[in-house]
Amino acid sequence: MSAVELRGFGWRHAGRRAWALRDVDLRIEHGERVLLLGASGAGKSTLLAALAGLLAEDSGEQAGIVEIDGLDPRKARERVGIVFQDPQTQLVMARAGDDVAFGLENRGVPVAEIWPRVREALARVGFPYDLQRPTAALSGGEQQRLALAGALALRPGLLLLDEPTANLDPAGAALVRTAIHAAVDADTTLILVEHRVAEALPLVDRVVVLEPGGGVRADGPPATVFAVHGAELVDAGVWVPGPPPAPRRAASPPGEVLLTADRLGLPPRLAPTDLTVRAGEALAVLGPNGAGKSTLALLLGGLLRPGTGRLAATPALAGRHAERPPHRWRAPVLARRIGSVFQNPEHQFVAATVRAELALGPARTGRSAAEIATIVDDLLARLRLDRLADANPYTLSGGQARRLSVATALASAPRLVILDEPTFGQDRRTWWELVDLLAGLRDAGHGIVTVTHDADFVAALADRTLWLGGRPDGGPA
Amino acid sequence: MIPYAPVAAPAAPLARRNPVAKLAAALLFSLPLLATLDPVVPALAIAVELAVAPLFGVPYRLLARRAWPLLLSALGILVTLTLFAAERTGDPLVAAGPLVVTTGVLGTGLGLGLRLLAVALPGVLVFATTDPTDLADALVQNAKASPRFAIGALAAFRLVPLLAEEWRMISMARRARGVDAGRHPVARLRIFGSTAFALLVGAIRRGTRLATAMDARGFDSGVPRTSARRQRFTRADTALLVGAVLVAAGILVTSVALGTYRPLIR
User: Residues with Cβ < 8 Å from A244, sequence gap 6 or more?
Assistant: First the structure.
């Protein structure tokens, strides 16, 4: 087990004017389990990287002191294990057992000890397959459990978990939390970063909230921290436990039909599906991983050619273009009528600045320069991107990139907007901004289709739901 | 992600050999073939390669599927040289208007086409029967390659199948933004360029994250690394190397004896 000591600690990445983290005083004792909170950009990930010894001395400027058991973290690496957010970029080897063995090999563990320790670590996280299982064949939740086993096999005194469930669907996230609960023993100090507090609370006995701009805002047992600081944490974008605020219901009944899908499918990714999409209605598409939700979103967005059945746009949506199915429209015609927001915002970025990114859609669809300027300024203000107008889209944080990707889809003023998991990994503030924005669009007569795993989002916004691949409770689709 | 794994029967006598031995044998066998321009040497080599394919556990159907692009290029070389070679030595075989096919031209074309196949087929055989993890292990343990290089390349290789999927997503996302080229070739080229750039940015970010994760698990930290999977270099592996050299020499000697040998450098 390991203890952590930070005194006046700060870190500024090379080439940045602002400190990612500063004036942090914190002591974490042996065996404590800490939930680390803070708004986007408060420096949570930087703090974990510092503790893991991953901030190279020449990669930035340090202030104050950070120590693990009295040692510089860069010299105490064998005491620390870390699990990151993205499963695909932390598995190294092609087979599950080899991946857990990877860290043991690096640490020079004698060969005779390696395989028993691999088996033990896999058993601790409840890994259900044998050692030969290809890592590529695992689901996201299984991959994260494997990554956890890889960290645990090294028997760290301090385990750092950086949003280990943010990229997972609810079932996968629950599996990973169960594995953390079962696998982390009293000898391991735990620091967990997680936006979704309610789910994380059973795993921790202390909450530390970082203040953006510097320092620690709150520190103590969860009940005390939330009783005293609950409201300000909500304002800072933290998901505190509590009843969800009132849903945004539609002001008027759904309007005209925009799209009709008749036995629309793409074997083997999506079974034939019937569906109508209406103006002034928010439709949520739900279902387990692998049911074809993202494929349906791409088909409805006119981005994939249907494998079975047909997709027809109504004249209300497409005017004279309604004669042809959306996947055969030219791109500018499509972007004026159907906007798509992808799961990974970066896929959508084309231009060198945020402003140019927003101007692209209107320019491609034939707006005048004056109109473009109005549209862009309006979107920049509405989505709190005005201060970032000249930033490169690839340098934005997760929440900022998500807001920009939504804004780019809205810029060409499509009547129908299709979003794939827009709320993945978002803090509470961005989350509510998205809900309010989409509710506003719906009430202005736009059609909204959202593919999502997020039950809160469905409760807050959806007027109608469609289940792909059967409901989990066995009810009708 | 697409799983990758050797596709042939893993228990076949030559497939089981040490990956480094297989790779070295392929090189030792095919490099001497480059010393000559005649068609007999590569033809004999291809005969040998086809004869040992079953020993590697590679069925001919699979070999054909993997090697058809090679076959096409070999044919391409033959046709091009036959039609356009400047030096038309030997006896004329066919004369159709301006086109005169001579024995010399046909021999050179055939020689080059067959050489391409003869040199590439051993590689096809080796990679169809070798697990990338085993190859990296053997490179480190038997060829004393640096783990930083061998394991690092192996980890990067695992991300390659993701790139194809990424390319499709980026292309679709661009269409959704109203960006398409229609039939305009210049616009098409520009979109190709910007899609490739987005792919590169994504690949670098991914690579950086993977490197950080490997770093966090102590990779390349200066501690001498142990190997969980043992790769052995046995007498059978040495025999494979010696066999490859002997067969290659035998083929060259045969060609000299037949009088067909045409050294590359005179």
Answer: A456, A459, A460
Asked whether residue B86 is assigned to any structural domain, the reply reads yes
Domain count, chain B: 2
Asked if B127 and B154 sit in the same domain, the reply is no
Residue B228 domain-assigned (yes or no): no
Residue of A nearest to B168 (CA): A347
One domain for residues B54 and B27: yes
| DSSP secondary structure string for all residues of A352-390 | SSHHHHHHHHHHHTT--HHHHHHHHHHHHHHTT-GGGTT
Same domain, B76 and B119: yes
Question: Would you state the structure tokens that stand for residue B44, as one six-digit string?
Answer: 């004999």
Phi, psi of A80 (to 5 degrees): -120, 135
Beta-carbon contacts of A224 under 8 Å, excluding residues fewer than 6 positions away, are none
Residue B89 has what pLDDT?
A: 74
- A360-385 in b/e form (b: 16+ CB < 10 A) is bbbbbbebeeeebeebbeebbebbeb
Same domain, B24 and B72: yes
Q: Tens of pLDDT along A362-398?
A: 888 888 899 999 999 999 988 888 888 888 888 887 7
| pLDDT tens, residue by residue, A323-360 | 999 999 999 899 999 999 998 888 888 888 999 999 98
Q: Sort out which chain B residues have CB atoms less than 8 A from A150's CB and list them.
A: 217
Asked if pLDDT for residue B57 goes beyond 60, the answer is: yes
CB contact under 8 A, B177 and A350: yes
Q: What is the rounded distance in angstroms from the CA atom of residue A221 to the CA atom of residue A227?
A: 10
* Cα–Cα distances in angstroms (integers) from residue B164 to residues A13, B146, B167, B266, in the given order: 33, 29, 5, 47
CB pairs under 8 A between A and B: 168
Does some domain include residue B234? Answer: no
Taking the CA of residue B198 and the nearest CA in chain A, the distance in Å comes to: 7
- In this complex, the residue of A106, A298, A330 whose CB is nearest that of residue B180 is A330
Q: Has residue B11 been placed in a domain?
A: no
- Model pTM score: 0.84
User: Is B23 found in the same domain as B122?
Assistant: yes
- How do residues A408-450 score in pLDDT, each as one tens digit? 988 888 999 999 989 877 778 888 888 999 999 999 999 999 9
Min distance A134 CA to chain B CA atoms (Å): 7
Q: Which of A239-243, B105-109, B245-249 has the lowest mean pLDDT?
A: A239-243
Q: What is the ipTM metric for this complex?
A: 0.84
Rounded to 5 degrees, what are φ and ψ at A475?
-70, 180
Shared-domain flag, residues B62 and B118: yes
Q: Which domain holds residue B189?
A: 143-216
B99 and B28 in a single domain? The answer is yes
Per-residue pLDDT at A476 exceeds 70: no
Residues in chain B: 266
